[in-house]
Specification:
The complex is a heterodimer. By secondary structure, chain A is an all-beta fold. Chain A is built from no helices and eleven strands. The model of chain A has no long low-confidence stretch (mean pLDDT 97). By secondary structure, chain B is mainly beta. Chain B is 0% helix and 49% strand. The chains are: A mainly beta, B mainly beta. Chains A and B meet through strand 5 and strand 10 of A and strand 4, strand 5 and strand 10 of B.
Amino acid sequence: QVQVVESGGGVVQPGGSLRLSCAASGFTFRNYGMYWVRQAPGKGLEWVSFIRSDERNKYYVDSVKGRFTIARDNSKNTLYLQMNSLRVEDTSIYYCARSDSAGAGYMDVWGKGTTVTVSS
Amino acid sequence: EIVLTQSPGTLSLSPGERATLSCRASQSVSSNYLAWYLQKPGQPPRLLIYAASNRATGIPDRFSGSGSGTDFTLTISRLEPEDFAVYYCQQYASSPPLTFGGGTKVEIK
């Protein structure tokens, strides 16, 4: 079935790095844009980053620009989020989500999320 | 940036009642590119409605979306026990940034 599964979360000190992965299956990954969305404990949803199906466009929320990098490997059906210079306020559940199209559409498939905790 | 404001913050209702949730945008959402999601505790969000009024696959017809421009509404005609959750609206007309509303919690009265 159509699904995305995140991995790579963990506990890291402020200033540290993590790389999240999102493995896609059940659909033609290269045809769809992909998102990262996060949710801080007890808070609402925040869009983090987007990458177009062909990687021509990559977008970031202002708070992560210059620190996070989104990437994809269409040959491995995998989405990535490289997170550097992590801050306490980056602590969240990070969800991978599929766009309904090659571009930035609505999010029709969500993973269960991976938890990132930034703490000293 | 399009800011989405959801109201009320919390809606206290009983099973079988009608729920009306509002999402107001700071500027017009072109092509009515607005989606609604439901999130239950400990679960990821789930798509309910896209393009303001189209139900996603498998969503019961008690859920309906309406509106255009800057004012959008999610209506649940008769609340079932599994509908008590948090609901988010999201615009995908203007990105970056793609934006979510702050959410409406529908709780059992």
